[in-house]
Amino acid sequence: MRGYLKALILTLVCLAILIPFASNAPDGLESVAETLGIEEHEPIWNGLMPDYSIPTIDNPYLSTLLAGTVGVFLVLGATFLLGKAITKK
Exposed, middle or buried: residue 67 (CB in 10 Å: 0-12, 13-18, 19+)? Predict the structure, then answer.
């Protein structure tokens, strides 16, 4: 269990350090759409963390950090549960 805790703390520290280096430029598909002049329609659903941020938090660094942390925990939890389900059989 201590190994998991160390890995979790290291992950959070890396997130806190690397988030300022995240690009604000559009990703590949958005960039191509902008180049071709394709306008994006209003989405049907915006999601809980649109553009890797939490809309209720005004500080962009803190918003991105929390969105990244939530994303890491969601992926870790899903991976853990999937691993448990696979190894039981």
Answer: buried
Closest CA to 64 of 10, 9, 22: 22
* Residue 55 per-residue DSSP state: T
d(CA 70, CA 20): 17
- Other Cβ atoms closer than 10 A to 19: 19
Q: Which two tokens stand for residue 20?
A: 């300022």
Helix (H, G, I), strand (E, B) or coil at 38: coil
Amino acid making up residue 6: K
pLDDT in tens, 40-85: 888 888 888 888 888 899 998 888 888 888 888 899 899 999 999 9
pTM of the model: 0.66
Q: Amino acid letter at 76?
A: L
Contact 23, 84 (CB under 8 A): no
Check if the beta carbon of residue 75 is closer than 8 Å to that of residue 18.
no
